[in-house]
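A favour between colleagues. Tell me how you read the following sequence-structure pair.

===
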Amino acid sequence: MLFKNQESSRSLSQTDQAYNYLFEKILCCEYLPGQEISEKMLNEELSFGRTPIREALVTLKSQNLLTVYPRRGMQIRPFTKKYINEIYQIRKLIEPNVIPRFKDSYSKSAILRLQDDLEACKGGDDVSFYKKDVQFHMYFIEMTGNDTLIAFYENIMIETFRLAMYAALKKCSSKEYNIPQHAKIIQALMTENDAQIAAAVNEHINYSLITLFRVLDEPGGANLPL
């Protein structure tokens, strides 16, 4: 599950609690892309002791959310235009092809509920909105029943969420455009026309990509390597 249920955190080990805490901080850009962090800083924040934090950091490193420099410290993975382009190349290869192919598997009512959830969140906080956005896209991948693809795509959606949160932080949120674009995807799905579905999905992905490139070109994004 991409986003953990925070209500059950009391039953988790300290390692899992440390991981969930750091994962959320990274995804929501409370730790900024490119920011340097240290075990000392994290120990002061969490007071769990070194072992749980180190184990959590190993997992985050394995997810490519963290870069460790021996004897130098750690850095939250920065965004570059090359990296963002690679993420979106993958999305454009997969979503416009997968979504039409599995259109007969989708529950129309489930898709409409996902859209309603987005509508309900549009006036709220960015975290809730973009979590629903990710759930919308993951629904189509999950319906393939392909566990390898689902696990791979969860990592793509982790970075998609982090990018959306960074754009929102830089006052370039695309929330107001996401809902009508999703509605267009749903409308195409209702027609069951493969070309229309692929076109609507491509349009949405391309708009998001252009928005992110603009974010990095803004003065506020100049602190990141391009």
Remarks:
- The radius of gyration is 18 Å.
- The domain at 81-221 is CATH 1.20.120.530 (Four Helix Bundle (Hemerythrin (Met), subunit A)).
- The first strand starts at residue 36 and ends at 37.
